[in-house]
Amino acid sequence: MAEIFLSYRRQDSQSATGRLADDLEAHFGDDRVFRDHEIVAGADFVEAIRRLVESATVLLVVVGPRWLSATDGAGRRRLDDRADFVRLEIELALAARVPIVPVLIEGAAMAGAGELPASLVEFARCQAVELSDKRWRYDVTTLIESLQARFAIDAAATPETRNATSGLAWARLATDLLDLALHPKRLIARRQTGQAGDAASAFVFLCAAILVGNCVLLSAVDIGLVARGSIVEVALGVTAWLLTGLLLGLLAAGLLVGALAVAWHVADRSARYRNVGLVGAYIYGGTWLGLCTGAAIATTAVQLTDPGLLARAVGGLHASMAASTPVAMPPMARLGTAPLHGAANVLLVLGALICLATAVWCIAAWGAFRQALAASRLRAWLATSLWIILLAAIFWLPLRLA
Question: CATH number of 4-167: 3.40.50.10140, 3.90.780.10, 2.60.40.10, 3.40.50.720?
Fold first, then answer.
C-alpha cells in the first residue's frame, strides 16, 4: 500500500498533480505514491479508495484555483455532492485520523470553514503548503523534506540515497511501532506491498514479538526458577527457555492463523492464505506483546504479596510432570489472606488495564483482515464465526475423546 495518497480534481489540477507525483515518485519510489488512475480496471473504486486512504501515512490534497468552485454537468458544486470522490477521500482520511496536508498550486487560497460542507470543516484547519511555478523545485524539495522529517517516509533505496536515509531508520521504527499501537490497520496495510519480502518481514516481526514478550515475562520472575548454577549454566538455561517459548509461540500462532485461513477460505473463496497469514502474524505478535506486558506487571504484584507463589507453582509443575499426574494449583497462602496494598495494588490494576487495552487493540486490528482481503462485513463476520467454531472443535474433541 502507498504511503502518500494524492487527492486532486482533474478539471482543476491534473497537470500540476502529475508533475508533483513524478517528483515524489522519483524521490520516494513508485510504490509509495498513489494516484486514483492506478486502480485496476474492474475493481470497486469506492472500496479501493477506502482501503488506500485508511492505510496511507499522509493524504496530500492538491488545491487549485477551481478546487472549491468546480461544478458538475448540472451546475451543482461538486463538493456538495456526497458521492464526490475528492470529498470522500478527505472524509475517509479525517475519520481514520490520517494526517492531511493541503498543497496549494497556481496561487490558490486555502478554503475557509464556512465555504466547506460540514463534514470537511476540519480540513480548513490543516496547515497548507504552497507550490509556486517560479520556485517549483525549491518548494517540492521543502515538501519532501517535511514528509521525511514529520512522517519518517524513507527515500527510495538507491545507492545515492541509502546513506542519506540510514539516519531515519530508528525514527522510522519508532513511528511504525507507534502506528501499530494506535492505528494497527494502517500499519498492517502498509506492510502489504505485494512483494516477496512481505511474508518474511511479517515472520520476523512475529518471532521478535514472541521473544520480546517472553523476555518481558522472564523479567518479572526469579531467574533461579528458570535456571540455576554458574553464569554459563544460567545463560544456557535462559536461552533454552526463550527458544522453547519461541517454538511454542510459533506453533500456537500456526494453529490460530491456520484455522483462520481455512475459515476465511470457506467464507470467501477468493481469500488468499498468504494475506491471512501476513495479517495474522502482526495481530498475533502485537497481542502477545500486550498480554505478556500485562501478565508481567500482574506477576510482579503477586510476587510482592506472596513471594513464594511462583516457586511453589514451578515445583508443583515439575512434580506433576515427573509423576505424570494432572498439574495441581499451588497453595496461595498469603495471596488468599493478605489484601493487596500500595504498590502491589497499583501494579495489579495496571496489569489488568494493559490486558484489557490489548483486547480492545486486537478487536480494532481485526478489521485489517477485511481490509486486506477486500471482503464485506458479512463475509468477515462469517469467517470469524467459523474460526471460533473451528477452534472450539479443535480443543473440545481431544478432551471429549479422552
Answer: 3.40.50.10140
